[in-house]
């Protein structure tokens, strides 16, 4: 593994993590709903999900997903359905004048953070395209592990930073006052992303 190749992975993974999309919406949703702990839980499991795809792809197992059109399509529809379900939950959010941060179990944030990655097979395509530029026959197992770990750490750290920033007590107090509308906005965003994916699949 060369420094140039590693820096290439760092740059592309950082840009990919920072791109707005359903992952950002999910982490923000849990941060505003349950505070810093819940947001960071979603962020960390999201990073683990990205790491799982990275390890699978760098080891060549993702070819199984890409060569099975049926499995790929099932995962894509599953992802669209999951986004739609979360979007509907957001739209059905109810206003509560005495709203406090709910005592939501961390497993819900962990589930959403991981599943938003797991049900997106396009991440496998992304990593195969990325790793094909830096991984060769002479790349050691340690080198492959380092590439995949880099992708996982960058993604997890980015969303942890997002959760930490938006859970600042001053910001959170203001955002909590508008929680129901933010939930509905996130709901519309997630449903829009689900619709976009569904249109692409038809």
TrEMBL record:
<dbReference type="InterPro" id="IPR001123">
    <property type="entry name" value="LeuE-type"/>
</dbReference>
<keyword id="KW-1133">Transmembrane helix</keyword>
<feature type="transmembrane region" description="Helical">
    <location>
        <begin position="145"/>
        <end position="167"/>
    </location>
</feature>
<dbReference type="GO" id="GO:0005886">
    <property type="term" value="C:plasma membrane"/>
</dbReference>
<keyword id="KW-0472">Membrane</keyword>
<protein>
    <submittedName>
        <fullName>Putative threonine efflux protein</fullName>
    </submittedName>
</protein>
<feature type="transmembrane region" description="Helical">
    <location>
        <begin position="113"/>
        <end position="133"/>
    </location>
</feature>
<keyword id="KW-0812">Transmembrane</keyword>
<dbReference type="GO" id="GO:0015171">
    <property type="term" value="F:amino acid transmembrane transporter activity"/>
</dbReference>
<dbReference type="Pfam" id="PF01810">
    <property type="entry name" value="LysE"/>
</dbReference>
<feature type="transmembrane region" description="Helical">
    <location>
        <begin position="71"/>
        <end position="92"/>
    </location>
</feature>
<keyword id="KW-1003">Cell membrane</keyword>
<feature type="transmembrane region" description="Helical">
    <location>
        <begin position="179"/>
        <end position="199"/>
    </location>
</feature>
<feature type="transmembrane region" description="Helical">
    <location>
        <begin position="6"/>
        <end position="28"/>
    </location>
</feature>
<feature type="transmembrane region" description="Helical">
    <location>
        <begin position="40"/>
        <end position="65"/>
    </location>
</feature>
